[in-house]
Design brief:
- It is built from eight helices and five strands, in the order ααααααββαβαββ.
- With 202 residues, the chain is of the alpha+beta class.
- It folds into two domains: 67 residues, DNA polymerase, domain 1, CATH 1.10.150; 117 residues, Cytidine Deaminase, domain 2 (3-Layer(aba) Sandwich), CATH 3.40.140.10.
- The relative contact order is 0.10.
Length: 202
């Protein structure tokens, strides 16, 4: 397995041929910390690094999109509860580095296979408006038998807030009335992932 700086060098060399990209790779890693953090960084922050142009940023964003697509493929149409680590990896790749809060719902069929993954709301750095009725309505439209709730904490700390707990209870209650199971609520942050079920919060 290639170390981060070598992988980043290869990515940059493809975008900026005929130039020594080692100093640039080191500058990016110094600023963002890792290969994953670099490719997930916002375009405007990448452009702050001297020597990085629009072409190199586009190339890094293509790599990010490909990585996300690959991790999504590992969970789509597969039983979510038996592919749990792949599911966590996908949620982390999709949301952990997002600078705004995002709330998504994973819709599952009767065999707990993922049939849809939809962002239900995007908000500020610490709040996303969520409407339990809309989530349940969408589950019925998709003929989903169960759902997994996922949102991110841009602060990096995945510890559920009081508001997270109250909102989850509202969704569980609304879903239960229509025989839709809520398997879990995952909070994703750079510091890891918190599971409401594992924490005994549902």
């Amino acid at each position: 397995m290639l170390p981060d700086y070598e992988l980043l060098e290869l990515a940059l060399f493809a975008a900026i041929p005929r130039r020594d990209v080692k100093p640039l790779a080191k500058a990016l890693l110094s600023k963002f910390g890792s290969f994953a953090e670099t490719i997930a960084a916002p375009r405007e922050r990448l452009l702050e690094v001297e020597g990085i142009g629009a072409n190199a940023v586009t190339h890094l964003k293509i790599i990010e999109a490909a990585a996300l697509r690959l991790s999504r493929t590992k969970v789509l149409k597969r039983p979510a509860l038996t592919s749990w680590q792949a599911l966590l990896d996908y949620c982390t790749a999709a949301m952990a580095r997002n600078p705004q809060e995002e709330f998504r719902v994973l819709f599952l069929d009767k065999k707990n296979a993922l049939i849809a993954d939809e962002v239900q709301g995007q908000g500020t750095v610490d709040h996303t408006p969520v409407y339990p009725r809309e989530i349940v309505k969408r589950a019925l439209e998709l003929s989903a038998s169960a759902i997994i709730l996922v949102h991110n904490h841009p602060s990096g700390d995945p510890t559920p807030s009081r508001a997270d707990i109250e909102m989850t209870r509202e969704i569980v209650s609304a879903a239960k009335a229509l025989r839709i199971t809520v398997h879990d609520h995952l909070v994703v942050g750079r510091g890891g992932t918190a599971s409401f079920k594992a924490l005994g919060l549902m």
